[in-house]
Amino acid sequence: MVQDYIVRKAKPEEYKEIGRLMITVYSTLKGFPNENEQPDYYKMLANIVDFAKKEDTDLLVAVTVDKTIAGAVVYFGDMQHYGSGGTATKEKNASGFRLLAVDVSKRGEGVGSLLVKECITKAKDKKALQLIIHTTDAMKIAWKMYENMGFKRAFNLDFMQGALKVYGFKLRF
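Above: the chain's sequence. Below: its structure in token form.
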């Protein structure tokens, strides 16, 4: 149930658990590179807090009323801190989010949507003109959610991360 979750900034004592959640989620995506194929990517996931240290960037979590972490995402108020390949970091008047992860046992309960809605709210509050995201074929399950929320493919933001095709999406306000 969506109402059973609270979305808020992550607390320092949660950072390691969030990193483990990210690694678990991404390493179990069918077709997504494993840790041996992209060790730097998994190191980044383990140290997810490094993003939260950047200016105008928040590590957000969705937690249950008993404080169990159900999902997390990194919101970027300014794309210069986004840290992806391609041209996304040059986008102006834009916010973005990356690294959306929902605990496998909590999927289908609206956790991902809640986290994305919080990113949309933050971007609108910042008066951004668009919200940018990236995804891969391994994450196609989330594409429908993004499209239902109004995100459109942004082919100019696509890039290759090693052998992995990464696809850009934008939500314009």
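The chain has a mean pLDDT of 93.
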